[in-house]
Design brief:
Length: 205
């Protein structure tokens, strides 16, 4: 383990105390300096006090969801790499750099994979360019049938639910309720089949 690891500051954001406690123990055992927040508002306060080198955030949280928190991070702190982690959602065709740099499914990665991902993002962050404006809206699919999907606006980066009409190869249209941007999105049958397989492998919560 290199000495630089002791300088790496990680902010972990999750509303479950056991997750914060476990992640803190795991990351500190590898030499990372860890700060925690149990919701998006608390995380923003921490960001203003001491900006971290990397953020690991859950997506489903009360008060301010992970989607809302990460949209603020991307607008105000675009240089900070972000890992989104969720047991409630599955990412479908998410453009790299929009909302998060990496998505990990809870229970679907090893400790070593987490460490390697953190180190890779930290190594790249000083030299990575600002992501060009993306015209593809990232989609987040609930693990269980919920009748909706979550779309992230490519303009203001905020996320919002829409009725789940993502079948076949039809392009769907919606307007962002926050900034009014017209958004086109698509989940083709191949992606839907992949998501269904992942859902079947995931344990029920």
């Amino acid at each position: 383990m290199g000495g630089d690891d002791f300088q790496t500051r990680v902010l972990v954001v999750d509303d479950e105390p056991i997750i914060l406690e476990t992640m803190t123990a795991i990351l500190e055992s590898e030499g990372f300096v860890v700060r925690t927040a149990d919701n998006g508002f608390a995380a923003l306060v921490t960001l203003r006090q001491t900006p971290p080198d990397i953020i690991i955030s859950d997506l489903r949280m009360p008060e301010m969801s992970g989607f809302e928190f990460l949209s603020v991070v991307r607008r105000r702190f675009p240089h900070i790499p972000v890992i989104a982690i969720s047991g409630e959602y599955i990412a479908a065709g998410m453009p790299t750099g929009l909302l998060s740099d990496v998505f990990l499914q809870k229970g679907g990665y090893t400790q070593q994979q987490l460490f390697d991902t953190i180190r890779s993002l930290i190594t790249e962050s000083p030299i990575r360019p600002h992501a060009p404006k993306c015209d593809k809206a990232p989609l987040w699919i609930p693990r269980r049938d919920a009748g909706y999907i979550v779309v992230s606006c490519t303009e203001c980066l905020r996320s919002f639910p829409v009725d789940d009409a993502s079948t076949g190869t039809e392009v769907h249209n919606t307007d962002c309720p926050f900034c009014g941007t017209h958004i086109e999105y698509l989940v083709d049958s191949a992606v839907l089949a992949m998501l269904e397989q992942k859902k079947n492998r995931l344990p029920e919560k």
